[in-house]
Amino acid sequence: MISCKAITKSYTKGANTVTPLENLSLKVPRGEFLALMGPSGSGKTTLLNLISGIDTPTSGSLEIDGEDIARFSRKQLTSWRARKVGYIFQLYHLIPVLTAFENVELPLLITSLSRAERRKKAEEALDLVGLSGRSDHTPGELSGGQEQRVAIARALVADPALLVADEPTGDLDRESATHILGLLRSLSREHGKTIVMVTHDARAAAAADRALHLEKGKLLTTDPNLTVA
Amino acid sequence: MTALLSLAFKQLVRHRLRTLLTVLGVGSGMFLFTSVETLQQSLASVTEETAADTTLVVYRENRFCPMTSQLPEHYADEIRGIDNVREVIPIKIVVNNCGASLDVITFRGVPSGLLTKFAPEIEIVEGGSAEWEKRTDAALLGEQFAKHRGLKSGDKFDAVGITVYVAGIIRSPFPQDNNVAYVHLDFLQQASKSGLGIVTQFNVRVEKSSDLKQVAEAIDSRFKSDQQPTNTRPEKAFFAETAGQLIELIGFTRWLGLGAVIAVVALVANSILLMVRSRVKENAVLRTLGYPGKAIMFLVLSEGGMLGLAGGIVGAGLAWGFLRWQSFTMGSEGHTLAVLPEISTALLAIAGALILGIVASVHPAFVAIRQPIVKSLRS
Ligand SMILES: Nc1ncnc2c1ncn2[C@@H]1O[C@H](COP(=O)(O)OP(=O)(O)O)[C@@H](O)[C@H]1O
Ligand SMILES: [Mg+2]
After folding, report:
1. What is the Cα–Cα distance from A60 to A77, expressed in whole angstroms?
2. Residues B211 and B253 in one domain
3. What's the whole-model pTM score?
4. Residue A182 within a domain
5. What was the ipTM of the complex prediction?
6. Domain check: are B171 and B296 in the same one?
């Protein structure tokens, strides 16, 4: 599904160049739930941003489902994201004035779906995360765990094959975190989603099929036995 | 597209205070703009000549106030004999205020029976002509005049020391008729103590608009060496020349209208820019979800346009209602200018506000998509 070959990402600001990712290669088979671990600043988010097509590598190739998105134009990337990726943020990033239902419906507003079709899909997605009873609530009226479930429903609603999550449980209590991890796991197992999740937490990583460690922009190990506690 | 419009609408409605304040600001600007446009338009309707104009005003040469223009009534018969003159009416004018004024009362004394002959277009909308003919103190009020003062037929009112009985209300295609009170000529001559046989001016109807110039010249040359020489001009030109100060003043208000437009643009631009800045992350998230830059810009422009539209409806609506309700009549030297808002002016203001709102949001719309997504998310 995902095949990164020798990708490097550097940012230049004035005379300074930072290279958060250097010559990194990685393969993620379809349907895998992968955890990316590593200390803060090791390039996890940067990698996730490349895989999700909101940023482009400085060099290297990034094949997803047979397409090298590293060569896509901005416009191509935008429409690719709309169809292929769901992004889950650490801080949920829901729109505060919209209800849970309206937040979940957001990705569908730019499709050609009718109102009724949008409604049906958004309701299904909310149902899948167990929040159909809260569809009229605004983010302010939900707990952190519920907000993250709404965010997951939003990532799911357009039915992308790939989900990326940047520390999705980083801001949650243990119980909510467990719930979210169970949800991601079932999305991978039962719905065949490929999931790349960045996490600090070994417990979270344990929910994944495999964990990889990043340090200073390079992968340390690919052996799953070393990481699962 | 409707889905995005509805998203923009939700954002506006749910950021209630910000929206309310901006709409109030835009509304004030558009109130001013609509008022100014109405003033300009009302002025144009009484000073700009059209092909339908066939009325000349004969005044005493070098006189500017109705009080000082004194012409012998019998000139009427001589004018009637001039080629292409369809009808002549001697008019005695009494005003409460000769200079430019906001609340002018104008009496026009005309010979009984001659009014409808002179201007058959005049229509009696209330009361009847029977009472007008019967009573010496009868008055036919122009529609605007009656409305402004809240008078109806059967009422009595007095002004400038003259008391009249309202026999009816008239409506006329000629703006001047609607702002005055018509009374009997001999009654007004006696009441104003100017004496019988003396009038202020003659109104002359010519056959067609292209005859105006030639007839005016013929009249003035006829009385050139007479004791009371005349100065004859088309009615609208007469107003334009005598009400010079008023017109200058109204011309100046154009700047107020321009100021209002600039204020509206600045206000919407500021409000939308603040909105865009406060939603840097929100927009980055939408772009992450696959919203094209164009869709984000569309959302920003829609919010600006809706703010403009709402403000336009509020401002133009209030101005329209206010001016209708107040029905101001300005005057200068016996000629009047009714400030009446047209629906088209209100619609222009509303459409204008919509466009201003959109234009003001163009820069913020670019700001909204300027930064790379990743940078916006990290901010
Ligand atoms: N847009 C950017 N501009 C400049 N430096 C960046 C940018 N994005 C990331 N970096 C730098 O790259 C390094 C890795 O960042 P990041 O991928 O966010 O790390 P992690 O998610 O593992 O904590 C950091 O040193 C960060 O400062
Ligand atoms: Mg990070």
Report:
1. 16
2. no
3. 0.86
4. yes
5. 0.94
6. no
